[in-house]
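Quick board copy: two proteins, each given as sequence then tokens.
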Amino acid sequence: MPWTNQGGGGGGGPWGPPPGGGGPNPWGRPSGGGGGGPQPPDLEELLRRSQDRLKRVMPGGFGSGRGVAIVVGVLAAIWLASGIYRVEPDEQGVVMRFGEWVRTEQPGLRYHLPNPIETVLSPKVTRVNRIEVGYRSAGDGRRGDRDVPDESLMLTGDENIIDVDFSVFWVIKDAGEFLFKIRDPEATVKKAAESAMREVIGRTDLQPALTEARQQIEQQTLQLLQAMLDEYQAGIEVTQVQLQKADPPSPVIDAFNDVQRARADRERLRNEAEAYRNDIIPRARGEAERLVQEASAYREQVISLAQGDADRFRKVYEAYSLSKDVLAQRMYLETMEEVLQGTNKVIIDGNAQGAQGVVPYLPLNQLQPPAGSPPKPGQQRAP
């Protein structure tokens, strides 16, 4: 026992006899009294039983061979069990044997040889990392970004300078390669992204880079950057390249805006001219087509009339050949009818005696006023 009862029959364990008498327990309650509720365990009894069990397992104590073997076995079991580990769903387990990368484990419950033989690193492979090139965002709560001209100024394909700011988003594709193939992953991604962007901008003219070619530049940069990282065996996958800004340099941006406005005016005037041309040309073509159709119709009309007159003359000639006197008399009468139809006429009768052959002619049609004209004063309208 770790302690002995002293003081004769009045001992109370390691705490001594309780004041006022009572049983040997540390709470000062009588051991045989009634009292309500459960009684606390007897610590002395528990310790004594534990020592008895230990003596039965190791009769010679911890110094015996069996005791040493048991202790060594327990320690070995604990050491072997320390190799059990768990890889989270957003991690990859990189197992190193004496510092050398031997394998990569996927998420789940895994085992490796205990330390110091094998150790495990578990980097987060689903976390999206961001690299800023050409600018630094204000991370202290202040507004605005800080420009980095050494990274953002680039030369275009038509030998103009452009200020490009962009971001690169990437994740870990292979944790082993990420940890052991490259020394500084973030610096590597940044330098490779800047190099890829400069190459793409160097193949692109200024005007498309500022306007419609932004998406194309992002896609080409992503593909080129991924090919470079795969060649480095960096274990990194680029998910997105995002252009933040693509403008002319600050000292010349006003002059460039003037040029852009002039180009916009030129484009507007060109569009207006195109619209006018598209309006006037169809109308002119339609007018020309109408004139051509009218001329064709007139030509057909004249040809038809000429052919009709020729056919009529031919028929008259055929009739004249059959009966010349009758047809000549008829032609004379028809001709005189056409000539005298609209002229004033005086009729002279050569057989009249004493009147010099003149017959009075009363033009009744001239005495009647035109239809619809009001009658003169004192004159009645003829019935």
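And the next:
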Amino acid sequence: MSSASRDSVTVVLDWGTTSFRAFLVDREGSIVEAKESAQGIQSVPKGEHARVLSHALAAWRNEHGPLAIVAAGMIGSRNGWLEMPYVPTPAKAADFAAASRMIDLPEGDRVMFLPGLTDPTAFPFPDVMRGEETQLVGFGLEENIVVVLPGTHSKWAEIRNGRIERFRTFVTGEIFATLANHSFLSKVATAKANHATDAFAEGVALARDDSGKAGGLLTRLFAVRTGWLAGKIAPEEMKSRLSGLIVGWEFAEARAGGWFKDGDTIAVVGDDDMVEVYEAVARAFGVRLAAAPADAAIRGALAISGRGRR
């Protein structure tokens, strides 16, 4: 079948460390269908990625013919299918396109691997991201603004003059998961974090406390335990309070690092419930919020690949 058969739809692939997600997108950029599984790259032996992908997309191929696939994220990492380079900041959409790589598969599919992004100005070592750069491009690079991308490793990025100017990573989600499940708290806490509770808001308030009485983060973290010992925090509230403290501390650190000040407008970009959580914390820190599309990653992948609305 000719390459013309690949014009009607595009598959946007988000193949991460622990999960596989694929989106079938039409000419207008709308999602027609999605597939998701727990078959992340860490569970796929080296050299087996093409076979796994072919099997996962077989039904779409049977219906639409050979597929045009745009692959972003950890599938292009050292532990993935094909290690892609990092484009240095400042970077625009065309820079990602220029550093991409195309491979053809036996069934006629064609995969475009997108590069990651590195900020060589970060101290002490260059910072990196894979996948979030598509969200930034999909959000749009026209407005000068700071964009927050919640996640296991949250990113704060500055967009300026049509480019991604700089970014920094905060290991917020990973720190919370480690403390909630593998620390002294895990032996006492009896419920999952609930971001709509007073306990979460109290954790955010503790992160915002700049009176000097609360100490640094390490001292404040232990207060989740001492609050329980003092009978002030119930076991079912501990993870919610911990989550509020850690997410709040991300904002406190970002503010101290000059990423925002009271009254600034920022955007929170993502496609899960953590977007609402981060927006609530942003408001608590006196920040205004710009609108952001939930499908920014797909928009960005299509824009970089040149397969956007056509």
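Board note added afterward: The chain has a mean pLDDT of 94.
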